## 1
Amino acid sequence: MVGTGYVGLVSGACFADFGHEVWCVDINADRIARLERGEIPFYEPGLDILVEKNHGNGRLHFTTDLATGVAPAEVVMIAVQTPPMENGEADMQYVMKVGQDVARLLEPGEYKVICTKSTVPVGTARELTKMIDSTAKEGVDYDVASNPEFLREGSSIEDFMRPDRVVIGTKTERAAELMQSLYRPLYLLDTPIVSTDLETSELIKYASNAYLAVKISYINEMADLCEKLGARVDVLAKAMGLDGRIGKKFLHAGLGFGGSCLPKDTKAIVQMGRANETPLRLIEGAMGVNDERAPRAVEKLEALAGSLHGKRVALLGLAFKPNTDDVREAPSLGLVAALRERGAHVVACDPEAVETFLMHVPDLEIADGPYACIEGADAALLVTEWNPYRELDMERIRDAMKAPVFIDCRNVYPRDRMESLGFAYDSFGR
Ligand code: NAD
């Protein structure tokens, strides 16, 4: 498993737990040293226990040396980052570099599958094959495969161990069989395995994430319409979701989508559409709607608090969703920037994501927990619906704030109750 980020480390630990022997490789020496000591480099519930167990039983190893990991491997999985470039395309330099380094390590007489687990644009397997053919020694025996990962940060172990489906793209039966054998423990759970060609497999990941993004933007537009019509988006979403054709997930109105996947993958698929003269208007529309969510929250705040100049504004939560410390493309980043632009002083708290957020905005004032955060604040915004932030003592919050203005960006608290407590309160679509 090359790359020990959210995907590589979780997948590596889970494959080890399935009974396979796994080498996790990373160029980040500090990360590997920490893993050797049993420290998990990011927050992911349950991962420490799984890593400790499988490291302890000798099935999960860590190294910075690619050759050590590749030599005994039947399957080499590439799980490095594919961040967006300026034009929205996925930056493939990390994946291609691993592909090239692995190619040099292939030896004739051994068969290996080199597989992308990273989210990669359609055509990557073809490009990797060309590159490996031009780099590797004469007579090496290998196949390229695609095995996109659908885990969600915050519940990634459960997602990996009990996935809705496993997608495997290959060009040969031999590679398909080897890849399927990795997931054999899931056969007991009757997990559907979708075996297909390389291109379809690569596209399935983008098409799935883009669909989820469209669903989120859809309900956010409905929230805006609800506000105009005097309807309630939470009830609307519930009723819609009870329709089996629609499904209830990803129908929560609020600040929109963020994180390391949906924003990046929507941009990348839109670029693929453009490059192939097939505009993806629905997805482009969803991205536009999403860009307006954080500004809408600021508008709502100004409507209740007036000018933000010189005001102290508390943000409850920084992570893009609960149960992760990931703040990549988190709505909180846009919120902090917009609030500061208006002259507000921002103070924030988060149970896990403070350290990662400070890497992006080092001078942000951090409070130790929600009650310290709102102390003397002119307004508060609930940004991430962490469990402890869902059950706050609102009387205590009201009494400690300078002015009880509360924007509930995740539709957690009942409006009636908040208003009867004396809050100037707003949420999305309710
Ligand atoms: P990440 O940034 O957390 O981790 C990437 C790791 O790869 C880092 O530790 C980095 O040091 C390492 N790396 C980079 N170049 C390397 C090299 N040459 N050799 C060894 N290690 C190297 O990334 P992530 O969030 O795990 O995402 C990885 C891929 O999986 C991306 O394509 C992403 O889109 C996809 N994905 C992510 C998620 C998610 O929830 N994070 C879910 C599904 C798919």
Note: Residues 2-8, 25-28, 31, 79-82, 94, 97-98, 118-119, 149, 151, 153, 260-261 surround nicotinamide-adenine-dinucleotide (CB under 6 Å).
## 2
Amino acid sequence: MTSDELYPADRLEKVREAADAAGLDAVLLTPGPDLRYVIGYDAKQLERLTCLAVPAGSDPVLFVPRLELAAAQASPAGALALEMVPWDETDDPFALVAGRLGAVSRVGVSDRMWALSVLKFRDALPGARLALAGGALRTLRIRKSPAEVAALREAGAAIDRVHAQVAGWLRPGLTERAVGSVITESILAEGHATVDFVIVGSGPNAASPHHEVSDRVMAAGDVVVVDIGGTMPSGYCSDSTRTYALGEPPAEFTAYYKVLYDAQEAACAAVRPGVTAESVDAAAREPITRAGFGAAFIHRTGHGIGLEAHEDPYIVAGNREPLEPGMAFSVEPGIYPGPHGARIEDIVVCTQDGAERLNHTPRELVIAG
Ligand code: ZN
Ligand code: ZN
Ligand code: ZN
């Protein structure tokens, strides 16, 4: 997909409409996923203010430090009909933004705006109440366009190429850290722009879902949970987990791994338009609970993914939001009874009549080493 398919020019107008519908007089977006979503500019978050102002009643403006202007113009934002206002080192950029906005009473700020900027905007806009812009933006970001789905598919294929090699790298006698650094290089080599996380949880560490890597030396009979992800040059993220065993795993592990496999299948099969996010969580949880491992499934079933590795919709009890075509999220049940554990994670996209999985490496327990 081209960058104008991924970051189409009508997003500025859609954000303006969403801000208006949310009762905001303006939205202020500093560097982060919201800004990138709206204008395609992957701006650096710096102490110098870069800020896209989208007023409900006038044209949007991008305020940039003068030394960042060339980078802003070279980004997809440069192809938009968007006024860019460079500010100089001795200017007060917060006063410039406030002056352009004029009288405003409710202003949405991006969820990831630094407190440093939020408090300066509070002083520069004394008549305005600041609110989070995320609520207005989520309605747009939560449904992925065909180009966004294609970008996520590309990210899924890239992380699959890494997982396809992991079994060959896991060996008794190596530390988690050593294997983790090979995986880190491979995530980049397979096309990601950045590595977001590398979890190599072996032996008892497999029972800690967000363990990263340690100096633990892997041994025969270990189970190893490998959960990895990165961000592609498109801006879109990958995230996939597979569980490996170094030789024959303990019998009780093999028994609950089968339960986990069936639970992940059931949850993926439950995905279709109109079903609630929480019902997908229930579809994963029910077989695990029935087998007696309910207390060992200690996290939600999944999270949305896109320009952020974790975003809406969250696949969790209490989220009654109905799924819609274009929603992309992980389906990643886990069972962590100790002294080992397991997780299987795919990214799926809700389609017109079901789900498309974006990860395709085998989900059966992979015997390595
Ligand atoms: Zn996680
Ligand atoms: Zn993951
Ligand atoms: Zn995940």
Note: The chain is about 35% helix and 20% strand.
